[in-house]
Amino acid sequence: MKKLPERLVDLLKEVKLTEASSTWDCHGTPVILHKALEKIAVHKGITFDDMRVIEGAVKEKYAVISVRGHYKDATEESIGEASPYNNKNSYPYAMAEKRAKDRVILKLLELSGDVYSQEEAEEFKLAQSLKELDPDMRRNIEKWRKGFKYCDSEIALDEAIEQWKRWSDKHVQNSDISQYVEEVYEARKMELNL
């Protein structure tokens, strides 16, 4: 992992958090937990205006939210978006708000681009779950996931998911990864209109 900016290391110490408990490496990208960013924001006195919903629909599970935040003399604004294409949970408004706020906090603390929030992408969450697995298991899951991207029919998808289930029954006890795989499967079916 790239070295964390000293400024972030100092901020984590100020709120009595450690680098190991609050950040992780996602293929060379430093990622910080949402709850750590929230603690830092409260500690530093970052305030937010009321959020503004730009667009959204609960039934279709998407939301786009704008958030403006203030720290000392600085003001920053950002957008958070959540939809079935970039969010696997059932609460798009909450996820869009978290993403927007995290981006604003990182901008206000001048850390944007050096560190990313865990809420930025589902891939970061998967990377955290994978990190907890044995290295051989991680490699097998990555191979499966890469191959799965190229499934182009319902039969291929069904075969891939069955392969996953047989393998995971023997080796994986991590529900986050199992849930992720099921969601990837459903999303791929939607993409292929199956």
Roughly how many Å is the radius of gyration? Answer: 19 Å
| Overall morphology | flat
Secondary structure tally: strands: 7
Instruction: Estimate the strand proportion.
Output: 15-25%
- Mean pLDDT metric: 81
Distance between the termini: 39 Å
Helix and strand sequence: HHEEHEEEEHEHHHH
Q: Can you tell me the number of structural domains? A: 2
Helix content: 40-55%
**Structural class by secondary-structure content:** alpha+beta
Query: Major β-sheet, in short?
Result: 4 strands, antiparallel
Flag low-confidence runs: none
The number of helices is 8
Keywords:
four-stranded antiparallel beta sheet; three-stranded mixed beta sheet; 2 domains; 52% helix; 194 residues; alpha+beta; single chain
Describe the protein:
The protein is α+β, with helices and mostly antiparallel strands and 194 residues long. It folds into 2 domains: 6-120, no CATH class; 132-191, no CATH class. It has helices spanning 6-14, 19-22, 34-44, 92-108, 122-131, 135-148, 154-171, 175-191; strands at residues 23-26, 29-32, 47-48, 52-57, 62-71, 74-82, 116-117. Strands 3, 4, 5 and 6 form a 4-stranded antiparallel β-sheet that branches. The chain has a 3-stranded mixed β-sheet with strand order 1-2-7. Helix 7 packs antiparallel against helix 8 (175-191).
In short:
The protein is an alpha+beta fold and 194 residues long. It folds into two domains: 115 residues, no CATH class; 60 residues, no CATH class. The protein contains eight helices and seven strands, in the order H-H-E-E-H-E-E-E-E-H-E-H-H-H-H.
